[in-house]
Amino acid sequence: MLGAMPPSESTPIAPRWIVLLAHGSRQPAWARPFGAVLAQVRAARADCRVELAFLESMTPLLADALRAAARAGCRDLHLVPLLLGPGGHLRRDIPQAIATVAAEHPALRVHVAPAAGEQDGVIAALAAYAARSAPPQL
Questions:
Q1: Would you report the helix, strand and coil content of the chain in percent, each value rounded to 5?
Q2: What does pLDDT average to over the chain?
Q3: 21-53 confidence digits (pLDDT tens)
Q4: Residues 6+ apart with CB under 8 A from 16
Q5: Theoretical Cys-Cys bridge with 63: which of 12, 16, 50, 97, CB 3.0 to 4.6 Å?
Q6: Longest dimension (CA), the chain
Q7: CA 69, CA 16: separation in Å to the nearest integer?
Q8: Residue 126 CA: distances (Å) to CA of 5, 112, 113
Q9: Residue pair 66/110 in contact by the 8 Å Cβ criterion
């Protein structure tokens, strides 16, 4: 019988990926907090491959990370922008990188989460940090 074989226990399942996306900087120390976030997400999500990518100045760049996922057999990628707001990067640069890679790897589906800074928990954490950082009496 011709046609696709049904999946079996020996058939590898395409891995799900989470790509954390940060802006990038020419200063290597700038990336340390994102490395810490990467380690914590990897520990929390053993069911996924979790990687870190950057928009500029650091590697891997977003398009390169998407290509690596596609070459590794990923078909379902979740992109998590570790950005504070939905500016030009989310409206223009990220969709452009995704479209470029999608043209090369049409089987790759990329789901983009909202900017981290739009989440209530992130806003609360930043507000708590700001309140603790200022001396009680100015």
A1: 45, 15, 40
A2: 90
A3: 999 999 999 999 999 999 999 999 999 999 999
A4: 47, 48, 49, 74, 76, 77, 78
A5: 97
A6: 80
A7: 9
A8: 51, 23, 19
A9: yes
Q: What is the DSSP letter of 29?
A: G
Spatial separation of the C-alpha atoms in residues 107 and 26, rounded to whole Å: 33
Digit-coded pLDDT (tens) for 13-26:
667 999 999 999 99
The tokens describing 35, both together, are: 């490395």
Architecture of the domain spanning 16-133:
3-Layer(aba) Sandwich (3.40)
Nearest to 82 by CA among 127, 37, 26, 129: 37
What's the token pair of residue 24?
């990038």
Per-residue pLDDT of 65-95, as tens digits, reads 999 999 999 999 999 999 999 889 999 999 9
Residue 22: name the closest of 89, 110, 107 by CA.
Answer: 89
